[in-house]
Amino acid sequence: MPAKSSRDSAAASPLVFVETQDTPLTETQKEFNRLVKQLQTARERGQKMRAKLDNQIEIINREIIPLLSECMKEEIIHLVAIHEARKNIKISSRRQELLDQYLLDQCPTPDDVESYVPTEFIDKLCSMRHELFPELEDMEDEEDEEKSEPASVQDLIREAKEYAATQGLDLDLSDIPTNIHPVELVHIINERLDAAMMESFFKKAFDKIPAQKKRKKRKPTEKQLERQRLEREAEEAKSRNLKSLYKQLAKALHPDLEQDPTAKAHREDWMKRLTSAYSSGNLHEMLIIEMEWLGEEAVNLAHAAEEKLKVYCHVLKEQVAEMRQNNRHIPYEPQYHRLQEISRTLSGFAIGSHISSKASIKFIKSRTESLAQQNIILQQHGTEARKILNRLAEEQARVDQYSFFLPF
After folding, report:
1. H or E stretch at 349
2. 203, 138: one domain
3. Contact 3/295 with Cβ under 8 angstroms?
4. In whole angstroms, what is the distance from residue 283 CA to residue 318 CA?
5. Less packed terminus of the chain by CB within 10 Å, N or C?
């Protein structure tokens, strides 16, 4: 019952039992193969996700950022031009109010554009905002003081636990990685709070049922007892003496046993990992190294005892769960924060968040050209500029649900 080696086929999994006509696979071996396949699939999905996100980052830096920068420059010029035109062109007070509201709705904050436009454009924006909405500037200054530092992951976890304690809820956040993005963390906290509230609700409802009506606790079935026994045995095997396992592997993986330079270097890498895992008491990593060695030594894996395979299956299950969890957190890693920022910006243009879309790029270019043409007209303060102001006031009126008649 040979096992495929990673040296036999680059495309094959490094740890796979092969069934033959004379030697069918045991259930544990089948489970081992399934878990190895799941682990490889999860690893490949993570690699594909990173490659896709890296490609989007490259597109952002090469194509999107320069386009957005030019578009935002024209946006700021456009808002300033509207503000200046409305002061120099005579229009009704009602239109003035609508244009005020339009500028308030459309005017970005300096924080929104500081990474896209030069300082001179931010100064123009700040000057206009201060002139139009001095009270808004004061409010934002107060908010900035209150939010001088964003809430850290530790702060969010602490606040969530404090809230759960006030509600009498059991909230476990011990498995949250330290590098998780705050947005993803808030989503996880909300989900777990909802689950804890439901569990608390049903527990209280069950406690109110008279004792005689409560269902008696069933005795575990033979299958459940067998499962519990296997889990205990796996845990006992997993917790076997670190020193004993280290000695066994150090002897088997010693680089001096190899004469081939490539194989010798490979064993040296194994020994470094093994020593590091042993020093930190990491049994999980030591078992992974043992599995790799068994897989690469071809027939060694086929001769692995059934109980040892059960331990490996237990380790593989943990690896699969951990890798799937890590895959879910990939988009929220710090190096991809820019993608979320750009997606929100593109959503503001009402073109969705597909940053690699040719339609999005075409839209930004078209909008930039349109704004540039309007800005030239607005700066002349002529009849055509008045038409633009009237059109913008009418659009704002429709937004404010005055679409049938405007008392101009």
Report:
1. none
2. no
3. yes
4. 13
5. C
Query: Over the stretch 193-245, which tens digit does the pLDDT of each residue have?
Result: 877 777 776 666 656 555 544 455 567 777 777 777 766 665 555 555 567 77
Look at the chain and count its residues: 408
139 and 159, same domain (yes or no): no
For residue 3, what are the β-bridge partners?
A: 17
User: Which H/E stretch holds residue 4?
Assistant: strand 3-4
- Say yes or no to pLDDT of 405 above 60: no
Q: What dihedral do alpha carbons 29, 35, 40, 45 form, nearest 10°?
A: 160
368 phi, psi to nearest 5 deg: -60, -45
Q: Which residue has the tokens 């998780």?
A: 180
DSSP E strands: which ranges in 311-354?
A: none
> 13 and 40 in contact (C-beta within 8 Å)?
yes
What pLDDT, on a 0 to 100 scale, did the predictor assign at position 373?
95
* Residue-number span of the structural domain to which 177 is assigned: 153-212
Q: Are residues 296 and 358 in the same domain?
A: no
* Residues 234 and 314 sit within 8 Å (Cβ to Cβ): yes
64 HSE (CA, 13 A, CB side): 23
In single-letter form, the type of residue at position 233 comes to E
Residue 303 forms part of a structural domain: yes
pTM of the model: 0.54
* Beta strand spans in 255-400 (E): none
How open is the CA angle 80-83-84, to the nearest 5 degrees? 90
Closest CA to 389 of 78, 112, 165: 78
